[in-house]
Amino acid sequence: MIVIGLAGIVVPVLPGLLLVWGGVAVWAVAEHDAGAWTVLAVATLVAVGGSVVKYLLPGRRLKESGVPWTTVGLGTVLGIAGFFVVPVVGVVLGFVLGVFLAEWLRLKDTAAAWPSTRRALAAVGWSIVIELATALLVTAVWVVGLVLG
């Protein structure tokens, strides 16, 4: 479950961090001892903290750069649609197309839409990096719990 969750972060099809945390939770329930519950508590704190940072940091950068949430929203909608049109890579293609179209419509200029599109993609990239780092920390907490437990 943890490995599938880590893969789900890199290939945005599954709720990766949730699966990683869920894997630790299943293990803690199966172990049913104080050490396992402590590992789950620490993993939960790391996961929640990482989730907060994942949304705050890239969002703040987008806001500072002037890219509105509606642009990211349209990118997300077309990313989801793209997933069904072109499995797996359609998410990325649809998101890029959606962000570009939203910025092109907003700015009425193709040349001005590209910098905004790059900034939105960078923010999404940072979001993925933060989620992956968080999931790896949760996994590390679990491994330490296995070794010490």
Structure description:
- The protein is mainly alpha-helical and 149 residues long.
- It has helices at residues 2-10, 16-31, 34-65, 69-85, 89-107, 110-148.
- Helix 2 runs parallel beside helix 6 (110-148), helix 3 runs antiparallel to helix 6 and helix 4 (69-85) runs antiparallel to helix 5 (89-107).
- The longest helix is centred in the last third of the chain and has 39 residues, at 110-148.
- It is elongated.
- It starts with a helix and ends with a helix.
- The model has no long low-confidence stretch (mean pLDDT 89).
Strand count, sense and barrel status of the largest sheet are: none
Class from helix and strand fractions? mainly alpha
Global outline: elongated
Strand composition percent: under 5%
Total number of helices = 6
Offer a concise description of the structure.
The protein has 149 residues and is mainly α.
Notable traits:
single chain, 149 residues, mainly alpha, 6 helices
